[in-house]
Amino acid sequence: MNVVQHSEEKLRSALVSKLPAVAKLYSDYTEGERRLLEEGLHPGKRGSLFQPITLHSDSDWIVAHPEEPQDFEAFYRDPHRKTPDAGHSTIYIQTIGSFGDVGLQTDRYVEWLRDYCQAFFCGLSVELLPAVSVSETGCSFRVNSSSHNLQILTGDLLRFLGKRKPKDAFCIVGITMIDLYPKDSWNFVFGQASLSDGMGVFSFARYDDHFYSRNYAGRVKKKLQLRQGDYSVFQGYYTPPITSTLLLRSCKTITHETGHMFGIKHCQWMNCVMQGSNHLEESDRRPLDLCPICLHKLQVAGGFKIADRYKALLRWMEDDESQLSEAEGAAAHHSAVHFHKPTEAFNESRLWLRSCLDRLEIS
């Protein structure tokens, strides 16, 4: 295992900038906010809130995909970066295909994702568009020759999202439980985006713990003959059960990919949800939230108070998950099903947020 180390001077320059006009943005933070952000100048130090990136194999993202690190100055001066404004301040989420058996739990899962994004991208509105079936997208599809599961074509989905994108959208994010592929020569892709158009589509299919096993329930019969345009194959197609781990992985993915819409590139400074990942093990090692450098980028784009954002995320994790409307409560009672937001996998993040708020509140 190798550790990615940067000097304090390099990290300070990446966070603040040496250009006076850009550095002034940093001086606008409160003393508590600066104290929190500057903990990132010593990642891995005993008691620090932030940790260095660790590389475990040559297949990890930084090794396999060398990129120029993006410091705050490069982000801020990027002429192609898009920033929310009064006329484009809503993140829209479009679900594609089934997210499980129709009912309260499926609806709640999507709402939990929406509410998490609302807290993460504090200050912006996050809305759910009406769900669409795979057939409504008109996309091409196939059976993967190796994993024997159904896949849908990302390019077709992006074209569909372009037609669905509301005029007041900052961006539109398509999510699906069906595996994706970008072209015939590729095995699969977790997602694909058009940053210039503010669109992306991402799959949670491979976040099922059993996806890579021979007993994966989404494998289709080898003799199945597909006909393009006949979407009946997706009726009743397997979707992974909604678990705490699946919810955690989904929250990481949707915020990571939406973060790219703000012009935030893959993080190479320290442990951060904006790190690239080549495989599930590496994705699981990423924390749920942003490092100080990427947090500075998002804050300048969104204009929120750091403490307000952390409190919103903490509320999402700690709110009484069992609260249902009267109609939902009656339905749950009759079906003998009680829906809690499964946040057990978020315990480490919950403690981390509390520590962050403690640092901010020290006088």
From TrEMBL:
Signal peptide: none annotated. Its cofactor is Zn(2+). Belongs to the peptidase M54 family. This is Archaemetzincin-2. Pfam families: Peptidase_M54. Probable zinc metalloprotease. SUPFAM superfamilies: Metalloproteases ('zincins'), catalytic domain. Keywords: Hydrolase, Metal-binding, Metalloprotease, Protease, Zinc. The keyword Ribonucleoprotein does not apply. One of its GO terms (biological process) is proteolysis. InterPro entries: Archaemetzincin (IPR052009), MetalloPept_cat_dom_sf (IPR024079), Pept_M54_archaemetzincn (IPR012962). It comes from the Eukaryota. It comes from Poecilia mexicana. Coiled coil: none annotated. One of its GO terms (molecular function) is metallopeptidase activity. PANTHER family: ARCHAEMETZINCIN-2, ARCHAEMETZINCIN-2-RELATED.
